[in-house]
Amino acid sequence: MERRQPPQTEEGWYVLHDFRSIDWDAWRDAPERTRERAIEEGVDYLTACERLEDVSEREAEAESEGKGDSATYAVLGHKADLLFVHLRPSMADLDVLERQFEGTALAAFTERTDSYVSVTEVSGYMSQDYFDEDAEVEDTGIARYIQSRLHPEIPDSEYVNFYPMDKRRGPEDNWYDLPFDERAEHLSAHGDIGRDYAGKVTQIITGSVGFDDHEWGVTLFADDPTDIKDLLYEMRFDPSTSRFAEFGRFRFGRRFAPENLGAYLAGEPVSQEVSDGHGHGHGSGHGHGSAHGHGHTHGGESDGHHGGASHGHEHGHDHGSEAESETDHGDDVRGELEEMGVYAGKPHGEDVHAVVLYSAAEPDELFEEVTGLRANFDHYDTHVKTAVYESQDPESETAVVSLWETDRAANTAAGFLADLPEVVRQAGDDETDSWGTMGMFYTVKPEHREDFVGTFEEVGGVLGEMDGHRKTDLLANRENENDMFIASRWDSREDAMAFFRSDDFSQTVEWGRDVLADRPRHVFLA
C-alpha cells in the first residue's frame, strides 16, 4: 500500500482562546473593596497582556517577527461572558499567562467555560515551492504574505467570531482520501468566496491537531456582524464546506479596552475607547454594552478557507523595509534633502505606507484585475489609493502602487496584490546589492505635463552619465496622466546623494516649483 504524504506545514505563534463566565451572584454580594481590587488586578493583567509585558527580552530578540498579541472581548449569549485571546511565540508563554490570571483577584469571580489551544500555520496548499529547499522562489510578496499568516496581529475590529472545525472522514465523503490536487482545487474555490469579503472580514486560522479536540480553529473579525454571517452562509453552499466540513460551537463577542473592565462589570456600555473611569463593579447583570473594532484563510488543510485578509508585520512598502541598522542612514538622507528644500517624508519613511509591485502582464488585463481588488480595498478606511502606473518606456514593466495609512493594512494588501498576473518583483526585492531611491507623487499641472516629461528626459541623460546610476524610469497613473511616479536605483547611497547635491538636481527642484501642483515626496528603498 502506497503511503500518502501529507502537505508540509510551517508553524508560527501559539494561540489560546480563554473563555470565562462571571459568577454574577458572588460579584453582587462581594464587598466594594473586594470588587475594586478585582477590577484593579484584572485591568493590570489584561493591559499587561496587550502590552506584551510577559514576553521576555530574550524571547523578543529570538522572535524576529515580534512578541505576539492579545485582546479582550465581551461574549454575547450564555456560553461565556469574557474571551481573552493570546498569541505568543511559545506554548510556555501561554502557560504563564494562564497561571498569572489565576493569581488575580478577578479570577475568583470567574469560571473557565471553555478554551482552545492552537498554532498559526501555513501549508503546501499555499505554496509548494515555499517548502522545497531546491526551488528558486521568485519573491513576489508570497514570502511576506506567509509571514503575515504565521505572525498575525489581532485586528481592531469590533466583533469577533470563533469556532473549531474538522474535515469530514465519513464512508462517502472522506477529505483525506482525496488526491492532493483535488483538495487544493476545493480550497482555492473556497478562498475565492472569501476574497469577495476582503476589507470586510479578516481571519486568523490556526491548526490544533494534537492540541485540542478539533483540527483547526477559525477566528473571524469584522466591524459589521452581518458580514461574518453572510460570509459563512455563502460558504455553506461551497462543496469544501457542504461535503467535507464539520463544526464545533460558535461563539460571538465584542471587543473592549481592558481599562473598561469596571464599566463592563457594572453593566455600562463599553468600547475600545477608554472610558472616563465610571463603573466600580457594583452593578448587576451582564451589560456587554457596545464596542468598536476590526477584522480570515486556513493554515494546514484549509489554506484559502475564507480567503480574507490576514494581518502581519512586513510587506515591502515603498519607504523600505530596511533593517534597524539602515534607519540612521535614511534619517541622514532626509535631513540633507530637507536642507535643500526637498520634502523627504517623515522620520520613518513616508506619511503613507505603500506596496509597489511590477508586472509583465498586458496593462489592460492588469488594470482590470487591480480595479476588482481596489473595490474591495475601498471598504477599508485606511485605504488611500491603488493605481496602475505605466512606463514611458514600452520595454519596462507596469507598476502597481497601493497606498495605505497603516503598515498593517499595507501588509494585508501585499498578500492580495502578489496574486496579480505575471508579477515579476516587488520594489526593493529585485536588486539586493543596490541602494534605491524612489520619488513618488509628482502631481504635474496639466499645462506643464509635456514640459515635465521633456525635463525628465534631459535629467535622465545626466543620470545616465553619473557613477553608480543603474536605472531611472518615469511612469504615469493610467487614470490620471498628471500623477507621475519616478523610480531610480543606485549602487550606493553616496552615488545617489552625489546627484542630489548636484547643480542639475537643484535647478530641477527650483524649476519644479512652477510646474508641480504640490510638492513631491521622496521615498527610499534600501
TrEMBL record:
Region feature Disordered, mapped onto this chain: 271-332
Identify the residues that the record assigns to the ABM domain, covering every copy: 436-524
Record keywords: Nucleus included? no
- Which controlled-vocabulary keywords does the entry list? Heme, Iron, Metal-binding
Compositional bias (Basic residues):
280-297
The annotated regions of Basic and acidic residues compositional bias extend over 298-332
Q: SUPFAM superfamilies of this UniProt entry?
A: Dimeric alpha+beta barrel (SSF54909)
The answer on whether this UniProt entry bears the keyword Metal-binding reads: yes
Q: Known PROSITE patterns for this protein? A: ABM (PS51725)
Extract the Pfam families matched here. Answer: ABM (PF03992), Chlor_dismutase (PF06778)
Q: What is this protein called?
A: Heme-binding protein
In its UniProt entry, the species of origin is given as Natronoglomus mannanivorans
